[in-house]
Amino acid sequence: MNMSLRNLGLAVGVIIISTTAFGQKKNETTASMERNAAVSAMHSKNIEGAKSKLLSAKKYIDLATAHEDTKNNQKTLWLKGEIYSLILSVGMETMDMELVNTVGENGMDDAIASLKRAYPMGKKYKDEVVFTVDRNRIALNTMARKLYDKEMFAESAEAYMGQAKFSDCIDLLDTTVLFNAAICYNKIEEYEKAAIQFERVAKVGYNGTECYVLASAAYRNAGMPEKAFELIAVAREINPTDRALLLETVNTHLAAGNNAEAEKALSDAIATDPNNKRLHYTIGTIMIELGKNEEAETALNKALELDPDYVDAQYQLGAHLVTWAGAVKQESTLLGPNETTKYNQLDKQKDEIFSRALIPLEKYIAVYPTDKSVLTILFQIHRNLGDSAKALEYKKRADAAE
Predict the structure, then answer these.
(1) Residue 282's closest CA among 261, 296, 264, 294?
(2) Which of 91, 77, 185 is nearest to 128 (CA)?
(3) In this structure, are residues 368 and 311 in contact, taking their beta carbons and an 8 Å threshold?
(4) End-to-end CA distance of the chain
(5) How many angstroms separate the CA atoms of 282 and 105, rounded?
(6) Residue 228 burial by CB count (10 A; 0-12/13-18/19+): exposed, middle or buried?
(7) What percent of the residues of the chain are helix, what percent strand, and what percent coil, each to the nearest 5?
(8) Which of 77, 63, 70, 79 is nearest to 21 (CA)?
(9) How far apart are CA 210 and CA 49, in angstroms?
(10) CA 257, CA 254: separation in Å to the nearest integer?
(11) What does residue 308 show for φ and ψ, rounded to 5 degrees?
(12) pLDDT digit string (tens) for the chain, length 402 residues
């Protein structure tokens, strides 16, 4: 059969193209075979053999990822992520930085980028991508926890973030890992980094409003009050009576020098739900934390006005008044010998506060008659007030309580 010169040229061209494509496909196949050999060597604890095979696998996968015919193949992309991450894993485990450096400074990011591209391409190598991702997630999580236990918080944060990036390859937002990374950033005072991760998990509902509070506090500590207020506003739509959120609202306003706004935030909360005993109780505990004794007493009494049998408020009010009276007593002991008038005033104030503490605590002990700590406090109050009979009664009950 005759073939024209033109047709012969086309046929030769097709043969050349097919041979070239086959050559590049062979690089992909050889990379896969060398990777398999490396894994077998690792299972046999032949670490040096595994390193040699991994370096060979890298040579072939680099050729495959550099060529137009194979660089966008799902298998090539998976193999690059697999081989690069194995090199990093083996290198780190054996402290072989020469091996680690073979994938370059951005080797981990390159591995992650390849896996992220490969995952949505189809089902053929999807399971392999997931396998590689999961292996790296487990390894990084183990590393992060060990680093955390050694108080190497900066390194732990980076390990957790690496784990989160691998999770992202398969469209998984690992909220627990991001939360842990944020905790680590907080510990090393990288507040903006912490805030960003707390905010990410808050926006998908992780741990209710807790992460909004943590994100706001981190932004506040980073000197970014506008972001803190933005997140507080979102969180208050979700849970306006949350104690931690109300406290963070107050602290953020105080940090910004907005004392009036801090008080207004609490007043606004009350205005929206004036008969919510829990809200008044929450505000009372916030006032205790802020050192506002009178306001704390008022709020806790309001909670008890709404529910006289509210034992949490009974206990909290009694404990607050005892602590307050103790502080007044301590203040009086620091006065000089010529400050008799002031001493008498403080002594009287102390007794009045102790007397007010008796009311909620004796109601509380009627419900929990064997609470040893409260029985002891009641003994001490009556002794301070000079009621020996009552003091002795509570002393005996405290001694008898387990």
Answers:
(1) 296
(2) 77
(3) yes
(4) 109
(5) 51
(6) buried
(7) 80, 0, 20
(8) 70
(9) 49
(10) 5
(11) -60, -20
(12) 444 444 434 443 333 344 444 456 799 999 999 999 999 999 999 999 999 999 999 999 999 999 999 999 999 999 999 999 999 999 999 999 999 999 999 999 999 999 999 999 999 999 999 999 999 999 999 999 999 999 999 999 999 999 999 999 999 999 999 999 999 999 999 999 999 999 999 999 999 899 999 999 999 999 999 999 999 999 988 888 787 888 888 888 888 888 788 878 888 878 878 898 988 998 898 889 888 999 999 999 999 999 999 999 999 999 999 999 999 999 999 999 999 999 999 999 999 999 999 999 999 999 999 999 999 999 999 999 999 999 999 999 999 987
Residue tagged 């070239």 (tokens):
20
Domain boundaries 173-257, corresponding CATH code:
1.25.40.10
Please give the structure tokens belonging to residue 71.
Answer: 């660089």
Q: How far apart are CA 72 and CA 271, in angstroms?
A: 61
Give the tokens for residue 257. Answer: 């020098």
